[in-house]
């Protein structure tokens, strides 16, 4: 390699800073690695596993793995792509996702990933979980049917908004997003419409009430470009305070 601080991602040289993760280095080099639980303003969680790559024969989460000189990363091998496809299918099977009628259709990262991977159905049995919706807040709806337990809203609320509105409760398939308030509802919480936690959801679990379906087909983020082409566009817009609900 021409630079000691470089890694190879599918044969492409990618520079990195000491201490930087593989995912962070890839993002800076415009090399797309799929992910749903990563955001640059909050700590890494590593829960969605969509950023899994293969390094030296081992499958690892690129958001948690520090880059090191001489590292050879497989990002788009048949094995890795099929693994990611299975993970996306599992997310659809475990929740209640009805894309055609969803307020986030066209702006949803999960939906965009399904298109990217050519997913029209899931090989796993649909679970049809019964989950509680919370519409008590004047501006925000929490639809747990769509929640993928990525923990982005929890981390954003605790680390950026400094309000600690959310946590994950339960275990395994019974895990759900819990609201910290006097009566456990979103309406009695400290969440406000401008909080990062209210705008960071990669799916349609948290969305704004007052501008649903405000974007026509053809105007939404993923209508004309794939999520791989768009890359970090949605994350940067969320960072700037723009809502896509």
UniProtKB/TrEMBL annotation:
Span of domain 4Fe-4S His(Cys)3-ligated-type: 79-118
Cellular component GO terms, alphabetical: membrane
Keyword NAD tagged: yes
GO function term, MF aspect, one: 4 iron, 4 sulfur cluster binding
Domain 2Fe-2S ferredoxin-type: 3-79
PROSITE patterns: 2FE2S_FER_2, 4FE4S_HC3, COMPLEX1_75K_2
One GO BP: ATP synthesis coupled electron transport
Compartment(s) where it occurs, according to its Swiss-Prot or TrEMBL record: Membrane
Cofactor requirements of the protein: [4Fe-4S] cluster; [2Fe-2S] cluster
Pfam families: Fer2_4, Fer4_Nqo3, NADH-G_4Fe-4S_3
Record field: transmembrane: none
Superkingdom of this protein's organism: Bacteria
Keyword terms, alphabetized: 2Fe-2S, 4Fe-4S, Iron, Iron-sulfur, Membrane, Metal-binding, NAD, Translocase
Keyword Nucleus: no
InterPro entries hit by this protein: 2Fe-2S_ferredoxin-like_sf (IPR036010), 2Fe-2S_ferredoxin-type (IPR001041), NAD-red_Hydgase_HoxS_gsu (IPR016214), NADH_UbQ_OxRdtase_75kDa_su_CS (IPR000283), NADH_UbQ_OxRdtase_ferredoxin (IPR054351), NADH_UbQ_OxRdtase_Gsu_4Fe4S-bd (IPR019574)
Family to which this protein belongs: Belongs to the complex I 75 kDa subunit family.
Subunit structure: Composed of 13 different subunits. Subunits NuoCD, E, F, and G constitute the peripheral sector of the complex.
Name of the protein in question: NADH-quinone oxidoreductase subunit G
Organism for this UniProt entry: Pelagibaculum spongiae
